[in-house]
Amino acid sequence: MNRYDFLHCQRPYHGDFTPANFVFNANLQEFATKVSYIACLETSGKISPQDAFDQISVLWKQLKASKKGLSLEDLPD
Fold first, then answer.
1. What is the pLDDT of residue 16?
2. Tens of pLDDT along 28-74?
3. CA 28 to CA 23: how far, in whole Å?
4. What are residue 24's phi and psi, to 5 degrees?
5. What CA–CA distance (Å, rounded) separates 17 from 23?
6. Interval 17-35 mean pLDDT
7. What is the CB neighbour count within 10 angstroms for residue 70?
8. Residue 18 has pLDDT above 60, yes or no
9. Number of H helices, E strands in the chain
10. What dihedral do alpha carbons 64, 32, 10, 26 form, nearest 10°?
11. CA-CA distance, 4 to 74, in Å (whole number)?
């Protein structure tokens, strides 16, 4: 296992398989990983709470845009 795989682990997809669902699941896992890192940086005092909030807001907007781009109207907001 290399460093990238260790830090960015992906879990297998267990939902109804469609290409859009599969891609959104990968995007969601990446979002969760990045939010976890940001939360750890804020908790340890490396970044300010406002900076953490701003970074997570950007990530959230990217995730919502990916949902719209994949035509996942059936997923809740």
1. 83
2. 999 999 999 999 999 999 999 999 999 999 999 999 999 998 875 55
3. 9
4. -65, -40
5. 10
6. 91
7. 17
8. yes
9. 3, 0
10. 0
11. 32
Token match 């919502």: residue? 64
Nearest CA to 55 out of 37, 29, 30, 77 is that of 37
For the chain, the structural domain boundaries read 19-68
Question: Nearest to residue 55, comparing CAs of 70, 41, 44, 66?
Answer: 41
Q: What sign does the dihedral 4-33-37-73 (CA atoms) show?
A: positive
- Widest CA span in the chain: 41
Q: How many residues does the chain have?
A: 77
Element (H, E) at 77: none
- Extract the tokens encoding 71: 């035509």
